[in-house]
TrEMBL record:
GO molecular function, one term: dioxygenase activity
Domain of life: Bacteria
The entry's keywords: Dioxygenase, Oxidoreductase
Species this protein is from: Marinobacterium stanieri
Origin organism lineage: Bacteria, Pseudomonadati, Pseudomonadota, Gammaproteobacteria, Oceanospirillales
Protein name: Glyoxalase/Bleomycin resistance protein/Dioxygenase superfamily protein
Residue ranges of domain VOC in the record: 3-127
Length: 140
């Protein structure tokens, strides 16, 4: 079996990203944290998630994430599956994180894209089927 355990992101403000992630997914928490030497500079790091997967958040990033519509090389968004997309959208909207845009219409899934204040884009997906041939149907 293989699965993605974590993604590592460098941000300007770790607390902002932690707030975004734990508002989006209240069952997630900081499962580990510390400081490390990043090529001569001390940076703080946090693992935010659950026992099986997490986002590794490192603080001390420089510059801004580029516009996701441009063709730069790098990660465009992080996709996270949730069981109740409507509740997630409501929680994030109330916390000041509106939906940027929705994904294409599909009978077996719904997805939205939301930015945190570090300008990192997240895709949140709710599947309406457990059948791989339905939820992974790309012909629509």
């Amino acid at each position: 079996m293989a699965y993605v355990e974590h993604a590592n992101i460098f941000v300007l403000d770790a607390e902002e990203t932690i707030n975004f992630l734990t508002t989006a997914i209240p069952s997630w928490s900081i499962r580990g944290q510390g400081k490390m030497d990043w090529f001569g500079e001390e940076v703080r790091w946090f693992h935010v998630g659950n026992n099986d997967s997490y986002i590794a958040v490192q603080e001390g990033g420089e510059g801004q994430v580029q516009n996701w519509k441009e063709k730069w090389t790098g990660v465009k968004h992080i996709g996270i599956v949730v069981s109740d997309l409507e509740s997630l959208v409501s929680r994030l909207s109330e916390a000041g994180y509106p939906v940027d845009h929705a994904g294409a219409q599909h009978p077996y899934r719904r997805n939205v894209y939301i930015f945190d204040s570090n300008n990192i884009q997240y895709e949140f997906i709710e599947y309406y089927s457990d059948k791989p041939e339905e939820k992974n149907d790309y012909s629509m």
